[in-house]
Structures are given as C-alpha cells and as structure tokens.
C-alpha cells in the first residue's frame, strides 16, 4: 500500500480526493491536515510514502511546509496539488523540494496515477509547468557569462580593468592577496577567458567599464 498524507485547507477537496484515493486497492490515506504547520507535524510523525500538499493555506503555506519537511526528512516525496500556475508559486515549490506538481483541475484518476508514479521515483509535472521549466532553462542558457559574477568578483574585475595588480586590489578592498587570486581565477573561469588581458577586454566589450 502507498501511504498518503493529504494537506489542504479546503475540506471538500480533501474529502473528495481522499475518498477516491482510499478506494484504490494500492493507496491508503493515513492522515489529513488543513494547514501547513500541521502538515509538517504529521509528515514527520507518520512518515507517509507520499505527501499531497496544497500551496495557499493559513498558518503556513505549502512552500514553507515542503521546505521544512525536506530539510528534516530529505527522502520525503511531496506532490504539490494546487490551483496556481504563476511563476512565484511553481519555481519556489520545486526549489523547496517538491517532486511533482499537479493542478486541482486534474481528474482524481490523474492524481492517483501521479501518486503511483512519484512513489516509483518519477517526477510528474503538469504540461503547463513543464513548458515553464523549459522556458526558464532556455533563458538560463542565454545569460551572458558576466551575469554569473558575484558583486565582489565584479569589483575585482573593475580594478583589473584599471590596471591594478593583485596586491593593489587586495590593499584597496582590504582583503588577503590569496583571496584576490581566488577571485581572479573565478573571474577567468566564469568569463571563459584565458588570462587577465582577455578578461579586461571582455569587460570593455560588454560595457562593464568605461
């Protein structure tokens, strides 16, 4: 039996989905919670195979609840079941550790199949979510190399462009020479260039310095 915990603040949703799942020969709903905080408590005490998690709830939302569960129990498998498809909900939920993402408009049978698939180690995403993730990946691949630089690395690059040596950069930024060398090495790696001269040329070419 696949042991399921259902966390949702809508009672009718819980009743309907739980009844359908419990009627399946291989699924057992072992607990229900109407808020994220209670959901975390039950998840850590019951240790179900699958946690169905709503996103917008009182006391604690599903994103924070998922994050807390995964932090304390990394093996937990959370399926988000929500009405929201906006980016500020989808990405944080997946980053918090959710394995699958379903919509409440899905048929009960589809949710049951998502439970089985997730239990077997698969990740189930709504087509709209998959599209958003692919778009996000494409956007990441179009980022320019210097966008990966930290604020400190950018400071070091600007001072390099001024012709300062590593020691002069260390003195101006009040950091160790060894730290400057590490920053320079990271800059060359992130900009995908071979030496300081090429890094400075890159900085001028992309208007990072005047």
TrEMBL record:
Residues 142-207 form the HTH luxR-type domain. It comes from the Bacteria. Residues 3-119 form the Response regulatory domain. Pfam families: GerE, Response_reg. PANTHER family: TRANSCRIPTIONAL REGULATORY PROTEIN YDFI, TWO-COMPONENT RESPONSE REGULATOR. The modification 4-aspartylphosphate is found at residue 54. One of its GO terms (cellular component) is cytoplasm. PROSITE patterns: HTH_LUXR_1, HTH_LUXR_2, RESPONSE_REGULATORY. This is Transcriptional regulatory protein LiaR. GO terms for biological process: phosphorelay signal transduction system; regulation of DNA-templated transcription. One of its GO terms (molecular function) is DNA binding. SMART domains: HTH_LUXR, REC. It is found in: Cytoplasm. InterPro entries: CheY-like_superfamily (IPR011006), NreC/VraR/RcsB-like_REC (IPR058245), Sig_transdc_resp-reg_C-effctor (IPR016032), Sig_transdc_resp-reg_receiver (IPR001789), Tscrpt_reg_LuxR_C (IPR000792), WalR-like (IPR039420). Its main location: cytoplasm. It comes from Pseudoneobacillus rhizosphaerae. Keywords: DNA-binding, Phosphoprotein, Transcription, Transcription regulation. CDD domains: LuxR_C_like, REC_NarL-like.
